[in-house]
Amino acid sequence: DGSVDVELSALANGGRVVAYNNAHYGNVWAVLAAGRGKDMGDGWETRRRREPGNDWMIIALGTAGQISAIEIDTAHFKGNFPDRCSVQAALIDDATDQSLITQAMFWQPLLGDMKMSADHIHRFEADDLAAMGPISHVRLNIHPDGGVSRFRVFGKPTL
Asked: Coil, helix or strand for 127?
């Protein structure tokens, strides 16, 4: 009914991975699965970066919504978790997956750079998030590289 927060990013709710720049280990789709990861293979892990930049993943939410919380879970990633994470977001009406890759670089920040720690659920509430209105797509940035077991975006559907 739109008054209750739901996990907008969940596979079960129609969330999907649109694109990613690296998936050296594990399964990128696992980041949207239910529960906590069972091991490092049950998550997204990128190779070590020797060049400048960061790794990223773009996710289409199952439905657009007003975002209330984000969780980034580094379960089982102890020596290979990202140093920092950030999230960019946008409300996209119609775009090809390929065009989103370029557009996402310019999306507004929803969550600024946040320090990560090993084997931990990092939860960020509304006070940590930029006020942006409805969101349909997010880009998870991991700096510079590493592993994420689960990524969850919670909010109230706006459709």
From this structure: helix
Instruction: Give which of 102, 101, 94 is closest to 136, Cα–Cα.
Output: 94
Rounded CA-CA distance 93/141 in Å is 22
For residues 24 and 153, what is the distance between their CA atoms, to the nearest angstrom? 24
> What is the total residue count of the chain?
159
**Check: CATH 2.60.120.260 for 6-157?**
yes
Find, among 26, 72, 9, 144, the residue nearest to 18 by Cα. 9
Q: Are 116 and 93 in contact (CB under 8 A)?
A: no
Amino acid residing at 134 = P
- Element of type H or E holding 99: helix 97-104
Give the Cα separation of 135 and 125 in Å (integer).
16
pTM above the 0.90 mark?
yes
The list of the chain residues with pLDDT below 50 reads none
CA distance 138 to 131: 14
